[in-house]
């Protein structure tokens, strides 16, 4: 079964806490959420003005918040620079352990901004080291690492698949983002088809016509899109490709407001109801 979910970015515009965002997601009708996690402590989250969750919190508290609102975690947004192992190895290992407690099957990440001091070949060797190290923890806990098209290498399908195949591990997969692929200049349907045997999670990101005209081919992605169904992405085509491959997972909507979250849920529910 394919089910709609919501990335917690939707509540950022209202300066709300994680718990408030989970409650709102449930009220809208979502049954899956994708929290964003961070290391340490920072003012906005501590004060309840930002939706990101510190991994210094008790993961069981996070699970209690989800359980109280009848939602499950489809994955964790755990983006970090794979080419900076001193940052990404401890961060991703911590995120994997956090995800295990929450029952989230995947941590989603990308290669991050490329360090200027690394050559082309060094970039991939450093990422291979990072992923080899992190995947030992992922395999032990049974949590996928989903590589997302989002930066200078992964914005192309070829670059995305090269990163997602750097290590021979059943836990190294793809979190496909339709909107990022489109803005990066790729055909999102062909890209999804090419990555299909590795897709474990999907970011349902739509791009408005105005946004497409302004930034397509000029950027490697965007934090959030418009409401699903209001932009350039054909969700019937996306779900058709996924269904044809037997995908059973979540379409995690990445939009910028609660109203867009409502519109996205209505549109995806209608699309998924089609035979």
Overview of the structural elements:
This protein is globular. Helix 3 (59-68) packs across helix 4 (85-102) and helix 4 runs parallel beside helix 5 (120-141). The chain is of the alpha/beta class and 275 residues long. The model has no long low-confidence stretch (mean pLDDT 97). The longest helix is centred in the middle third of the chain and has 22 residues, at 120-141. The chain has a nine-stranded parallel beta sheet. The protein has one domain: TIM Barrel, CATH 3.20.20. 43% of the residues lie in helices and 15% in strands. Strand 1, helix 1 and strand 2 form a beta-alpha-beta unit.
CATH architecture name: Alpha-Beta Barrel
What spatial order of strands do you see in the largest sheet?
A: 5-2-1-11-10-9-8-7-6
- Give the number of DSSP strands: 11
**Overall geometric form:** globular
SSE layout and pairings?
Layout: E1 3-7, H1 18-28, E2 32-34, E3 37-38, H2 43-46, E4 53-54, H3 59-68, E5 72-73, E6 76-77, H4 85-102, E7 106-109, H5 120-141, E8 144-147, H6 157-163, E9 172-177, H7 178-183, H8 188-195, E10 199-204, H9 209-215, H10 235-244, E11 250-253, H11 258-273
Parallel strand pairs: 1-2, 1-11, 2-5, 3-4, 6-7, 7-8, 8-9, 9-10, 10-11
Describe this protein with a few key phrases:
15% strand; 275 residues; 11 helices; two-stranded parallel ribbon; TIM Barrel
